[in-house]
Amino acid sequence: MNNNLSGMMATSTVLPVNTTTMSERDIIKGLQENVDAMFLIFCGMLIFFMKAGFSFLEAGAVRKKSVVNSLFRNFMDLYICGMAYWLFGFAFAYGNYNGNPFIGHDPNYFALVSIAPAGYAMWFFQMVFGEAAATIVSGSVAERANSLGYVMANFLIAGFVYPVVTHWVWSTDGWLFLGDGTNAFTDFAGSGCVHVVGGSCALIATVIVGPRQGRFDHNGSVNEMKGHNLPFTALGALILFFGFFAFNGGSQKSISQPGDGVIVAKAVVNTMIAASFGGGSLTFIVRCTEKRWSLLQGLNGALASMVGEIDRHTLIDSCTLSYVENSVGSSRTSWTGIQTNKQ
């Protein structure tokens, strides 16, 4: 009797357990999707806050008469990038359609007409990345850019240039992502997609508009044009410093899978290492060579180093020394540029 009762109880409890297990799996999957979406949105908001850093950095580095124009360009970055990336930028980047390796063009992605719910968080995260790439140009043409021309260039970068490059590198159909079957291009946090793209566009813009009036004498010697507010510049650099933790750590794009937390932590630690060695080494280089302490050049070294090492965060266990050397190398590059300008 007891054996039969035990068997009946066992039988009665087996089916509900299986049903409950399947339900729990659905719940866990949904929770993972929500956590990953919130992770992207939160990191995206911190990256968005880097715009305040860019604004303070540039406003402090220009002369007082140019501050309003500088702030105007930085706000236009936000407006134009939001519109351009919504209209067609996201479609060009991630609208995989018929396996096009050069550019995405899924009709459902234009203006976010019909994308999967998970796509909204990715759109926001990638939009602020694109805005960061476009805003690099602002500093390179400070005090000499035509507003209408700048807006048009910004729209082109955010709506076409950056999305196409990210399609090559981060889309599963991109020709750099696929590689040659043996080797493929990797870019963890936008060293190429964001900073090389933004820097290249900034270089082209600088060549087109030329130097600021009064920057060079008739004999070619350089006239130093100091910014009007070093505390603004320092505050902007500090905000960018903070934002880089989200910029680099958030590039994992998920936090719910096994190992995600470790990779995010490595990215954050590596960012700190780069800034510390980059800013510190350049500060001491200037101290040894020019017999003075320089806050500004230390900030340059820290920012240059955080940019220079963001493509290989996950290799920190085996390449810590390489990161340090890369940081110092970025600082020395900045220092070499300083010496060149002084000649």
Find the count of extended strands (DSSP E, 2+ residues).
0
Major beta sheet, specifics?
none
Individual helix count: 10
What's the average pLDDT? 83
Through-space gap between termini:
101 Å
What percent strand?
under 5%
Q: Which overall shape is indicated by the principal axes computed on the Cα atoms?
A: globular
Which range best describes the helical content: under 10%, 10-25%, 25-40%, 40-55%, 55-70% or over 70%?
over 70%
How would you explain this protein's 3D organization?
- Helix content is 73%, strand content 0%.
- It is built from ten helices and no strands.
- The protein has helices spanning 2-61, 67-94, 119-140, 147-170, 175-178, 191-209, 230-249, 260-290, 295-308, 316-342.
- The protein starts with a helix and ends with a helix.
- It is mainly α.
- The longest helix has 60 residues, at 2-61.
Set out the fold topology.
Blueprint: H1 2-61, H2 67-94, H3 119-140, H4 147-170, H5 175-178, H6 191-209, H7 230-249, H8 260-290, H9 295-308, H10 316-342
Helix pairs in contact: 1-2, 1-3, 1-7, 2-3, 2-4, 3-4, 3-6, 4-6, 7-8, 7-9, 8-9, 8-10, 9-10
Keywords:
343 residues, disordered N terminus, 73% helix, mainly alpha, single chain
Brief digest:
Helix content is 73%, strand content 0%. The chain contains 10 helices and no strands. The chain is globular and about 70 Å long.
